[in-house]
Design goal:
- With about 240 residues, the protein is an alpha/beta fold.
- The protein folds into 2 domains: about 160 residues, Rossmann fold, CATH 3.40.50; about 70 residues, DNA polymerase, domain 1 (Orthogonal Bundle).
- It is about 40% helix and about 10% strand.
- It is built from 10 helices and 8 strands.
- The strands form 2 sheets. A 6-stranded parallel beta sheet has the order 5-4-1-6-7-8, with helices on both faces. Strands 2-3 form a two-stranded antiparallel ribbon.
- The radius of gyration is 18 Å and the shape is elongated.
Amino acid sequence: MVGPEAKHRDGPHRRPTRFTAVLFDLDGTLVDTSADIATGVNATLAEHGFGPLPIGTVLEHVGRGVRVLMQSCFEQECRVSPDDVGGVDRVVSEFRRNYAAHLLDTTRPYPGIREMIERLHAAGIAMAVVSNKPEDLSRGILEGLRLDYRFVAILGGDTLPSRKPDPAPLLHALERIGPPRAAAPAMVGDSEIDIAAARAAAIPVAAVAWGFGSQDRLARAAPDHLAHDPADLESWLTGPS
């Protein structure tokens, strides 16, 4: 239940909106990073003599941070322990180097996202990014795409000691946004991890159907809203309480 704080206005010409702060996931929500992540993973696998994985296979392991990503790709797809190729820390470091070299090769905002962000900003809604991708890589993408300046905070999976689905990053982002706009927040993401984090933080959550997550799994996770395109998402975020 959204309280009366959701009707806060930043200016005399802004109409009240359902939410006054929105926390966005990054990969699969705002931007399509799929091909570049796969390039980074496959370059790392190649350094250890393994062939490339299809993008879809790589995406099955995305969402819980780069350490889990690389450990899962080696153990579940290559059937080898990272300890046999120098350890998890080594392959994570190699992935970060390889991925950083291809960070913006094909990565772009999903159609309609840039325009939606501008309209949310114009409506007086404060926005932050809460990703499980390392903070420096998250910032590099947003800065490279010239989207960073609309976000009050950009948090990555290594910004705090814990990451999603722990609610701490969401709550920290809301602290950065501050009152009064943080009083009526929403979370937007493309995975069950985002939904679980929002539930743990007691924040309403929308899932997006265009991202990396399975629509069936998203539906089973029961978000407050399943958005099929950015216009649908914007309508939910800005509609009356």
